[in-house]
Every structure is written in structure tokens, then in C-alpha cells.
Amino acid sequence: MARVGLVASRVTTAAADLADKVGFDKVTLSAVARILGIAEPSMYSHVRSVAELRKGVAVLAATELADCIGEALAGRAGKDALVAFSNAYREFARTCPGRYTATHIQLTEEELSRSTGHQRIFAMTMAMFRAYDLSEGELTDAVRLVRSSLHGFVSLESIGGFGHPRDVQKSWENGIEAIHVMLTEWPSSGAAR
Amino acid sequence: MARVGLVASRVTTAAADLADKVGFDKVTLSAVARILGIAEPSMYSHVRSVAELRKGVAVLAATELADCIGEALAGRAGKDALVAFSNAYREFARTCPGRYTATHIQLTEEELSRSTGHQRIFAMTMAMFRAYDLSEGELTDAVRLVRSSLHGFVSLESIGGFGHPRDVQKSWENGIEAIHVMLTEWPSSGAAR
DNA sequence: GGCGACTTCCTATGGCCCATAGGTTGCAGC
DNA sequence: GCTGCAACCTATGGGCCATAGGAAGTCGCC
């Protein structure tokens, strides 16, 4: 029988593409095997389990998201950077919903520290926020809130959570604007804390 | 053989409890059947499919969440209401993670309009926001953003998304404070739009 | 060239889950 | 007591995850 001649990365990209097409939770060993044209148990020559396959997608997706954000952020600062970051983030979530979901699965401390994508996204986020005048603790609080807002927005959007006729794009733009104002006027910013 | 004498609501609460215990995605017909002490196919006397079972949990959970929020909101207004709402929301998500997840599954327009829980949560949210001076469009934008922030925060928190040593409770409190400021200073608030 | 080791891939099997088909039994109402 | 329904059953099949154990292609080395 003809060898397909797979490499691990090919398996992961196939899984990631499938995730974007049918949803991350429907990424299954048998489905990926079908796509690759091999029998189901043959998958175990490339991955140890379905969980590991999904973690592979997570790491890949984080790398790609980091690339998108890095590109958007290049040469920008302040509010300009915030808008570019947010738009790149949402764009990624919309075009690659499966990959986006994957970036939010639980990884161990160990796995997370080895995922350069996750690390880079974190670093770029922190760097962007230094434009605002926030103390150490405030910085973490603000990062957590903004991250929550962006993640929440694109998550709710993806599941059709915004039923009101109001244009979602408009809400997004105004929301980012409001977040910028919030960061500028962060409570007790500048005061001792 | 002794009849268990089930009613549909008993099946749904068992499923909801299971969801809180092991995760909403692990709510399975066979697991619920085991808990109830009946054979797997007997489940089909009570629900049409696993999807319908999960939708039942979603409707139940929304009702309970609406109750929690309603109780927290009683007699409060303005910032006080925002804080009470947010805390009740997060408290629910923490104590009933499976139910919380359930409230975010996709329902049809039809199902949504018949879920009084979902309706009540929406209505209470809108009512709470009337304390802030926002135009029609701004109101929707603000509701969407705050909903995103709260949902995003509790979601990220539940998956261990906040790795930094900074106290998460502190971030939460300061975040709500910042959201209040943001709503008060909403961009172009009061201006023609 | 040919031998061995590794890798890729296979069939067979079993467990768990969803779902349907078709039968049995308890109970309510006449 | 009989009828009809609702609650429950066994049997079966399909999809998925996973392991066991074997076959075949490929590479290095003599």
C-alpha cells in the first residue's frame, strides 16, 4: 500500500483546518484520519491521543494569532495600537473560529511556557498597555479586563449572542473607543495604590 | 420491575447537576440514565435527543440565573446595581459552572423567546443600564460590551486563564469599578449620535 | 546486494456514547 | 376486568477512542 508519508505538522494543520470548518469540539481522530486518507488507529503513529492532537492545534493557533497581532501592531502605539490589536484579534476569531477556540483550552504550566505563541501574545499585550499610565497592579487588572472584553465579545458574536438589530460592527468600534477612554481614565490612576 | 416514576423536570435537574459536577460537555444520556437508575434507551421516553436534554438544562439554568440576579438587584440602582449584578453573575458562574455554560449554547429564535430566564436576564440588564445617560444605540453598544466583559472574565477565570499572581478578586472589583467609570464617561455620551 | 531496525500503516477488538426498533409492564380510567 | 398510554426494557447498529499485534516500506550499514 502506498505510504502517505505524513509528518506530525501535516496532521496538526489538517486538524486545525477541520476545526475551522466544523468546530473545534468536532475535531476527532477518525475525522482527521479520513481527511488524511489513513485508517483510524494509524493516527496513533503521529499523536498519542485526541487530547494531544487538540493541544497541537492550540499551540499552532496561538503562533498564528501571535503573527497576526504582531503584524497589526508593527509601528503602532497608544490608541492606534489598541484598535489594531483588537481588530486583528477579532478578525482571527472570525476567520479561524476553530483555531481561536483552540487557543483557549487548558494547557499545563509546562506546555504554556513552551508555547511561544501564547508567550508572544502575552508579551505584546503587556507592551501595548504600557502606553497607559497604570501602576503594576492596575496594569494586570486592566489587561485582564480588556482581554475579557475582547474574548467575551468575539465569543458571544460567534455563537450569535447579539440578537438586537443594532449593527455589531458599530458596537465593536464604539466598544473599543470606550475601552480606550476607560484605560485613560482608569480609576485611581496616578494616585497612590 | 419497579417504576422510577420520572418526570421531565427531574431528568433536567439531574443533567444540570451533572453538568456542574463534571462539565456541561460531559452531560451524556447514558450518564444521566445511570444516575437516574434507568437503562440508556429509556431516556428517550423523556427527551428526544441529547441536544434537547442540553437545551432543557440551558432553559433551567437561565431561569435560575435570572432568579439570582433579580434577588441581587432588588432595591438597588446605579453603580450599586451594577456591582450587585456583576457579583451575582460571577457567583453563579463559579458555583454552577455547568449551568453557566449551558446558558450560552445556541438556541433558536423561537426557543429563546420562550425561555423566560433568558428574557428576564435581558430585561434586567437593560433596566440597569438606564441609570446611565446613553442614547438608544449607545445603550445597546454598552450592554454588549459589559456583557462581553463579564462573560469573558468568568470564562477565562473558569479555565484558569489568569496565571499572574495578582489576586483575581481584586482585579474583578477594580474591573467593575472601571466599567462603571466607562459607562459614566461613555464616548460622545450626551452628544448627538 | 542484503540484513536489521525503525517508522508507517494495517486489521481486529473492545469500551463508551447516541439512537432506533420493537416488546413488556404498571397504572388510570371506563 | 379491559383498554390504552406511559415508562421501561433488550437487542442492535453506527461513530468515536484506544490498544494489541502484525505487515510493509525505508534507511543505514556491512
Automatic annotation (TrEMBL), chains A, B:
Portion annotated as DNA-binding: 28-47
Keywords noted in UniProt: DNA-binding, Transcription, Transcription regulation
Pfam families: TetR_C_33
This protein's name: WHG domain-containing protein
Keyword DNA-binding: yes
SUPFAM superfamilies: Homeodomain-like (SSF46689), Tetracyclin repressor-like, C-terminal domain (SSF48498)
Span of domain HTH tetR-type: 5-65
